[in-house]
Write a structure and sequence with these properties.
This protein has 206 residues and is mainly alpha-helical. Helix content is 68%, strand content 2%. Helix 3 packs parallel to helix 8, helix 5 runs antiparallel to helix 6 and helix 6 packs antiparallel against helix 8.
Length: 206
């Protein structure tokens, strides 16, 4: 067996194993990804004009659905968000609770569910450019929209400082786009490299 064939077989065996795992074992993997997300959330750059910092956690979010699949990627982000909202200090800056970043955390769940769905259902989605497009959509729409809505509500009702739409974009979207695109490209490359290009499930395009 050639090295390339051995690598392809290893990728297939892992995803087939992941798909066939029992619920308790899938839960352990989901908790592990949630912990990784919490660690990457501490890689942060504070912005003086915004309560939202630049963080590394989006990278883990994008790969959660790819690595864990349709439901368990979303479950991992639900564990991360639910425990963080409940008081576990693993949000950025070792924080917890319903702060300014709550909407982005909700978006993490949506993004992981979305990417996990396509990874499990369509073999073609595992190609680099397909995954790149899906991850851009997940990052810039499914994460940003609930994040901006929540941030607007937080500024208005918690801080008592409503802002214009353009100011909201400056605080909660524009500074992060370049970094998020970089993380998307890196995550898409990883996803292309680790996912099998043959059926391990009941893919629609097998």
């Amino acid at each position: 067996m050639t090295i390339s064939a051995a690598i392809d077989r290893t990728k297939y065996d892992f995803f087939r194993w992941r798909f066939a795992l029992s619920i308790p074992k899938k839960l352990v993997l989901a908790i592990g990804i949630a912990c990784l997300t919490g660690l990457l959330a501490q890689v942060r750059i504070a912005l003086p004009w915004s309560p939202i910092p630049i963080t590394g956690q989006t990278f883990a979010v994008l790969l959660a659905g790819v690595m864990l699949g349709r439901w368990w990627g979303g479950a991992s982000m639900a564990i991360y968000g639910g425990l963080g909202f409940a008081g576990v200090p693993w949000f950025t800056g070792w924080a917890s609770g319903l702060g300014a970043t709550g909407g982005y955390v909700i978006g993490f769940i949506l993004a992981a569910l979305f990417l996990g769905h396509f990874t499990d259902k369509y073999i073609k989605s595992r190609r680099f450019f397909s995954m790149l497009g899906l991850m851009i959509l997940a990052s810039l729409f499914l994460v940003y929209v609930p994040g901006l809505v929540w941030l607007s509500l937080w500024l208005n009702f918690v801080k008592g400082s409503p802002v214009s739409f353009m100011t909201l974009l400056t605080m909660g979207a524009v500074p992060f786009i370049a970094g998020d695109i970089t993380k998307v490209v890196a995550a898409a490359l990883v996803a292309k490299g680790v996912t099998p290009k043959q059926s391990y499930n009941t893919e629609a395009d097998r």
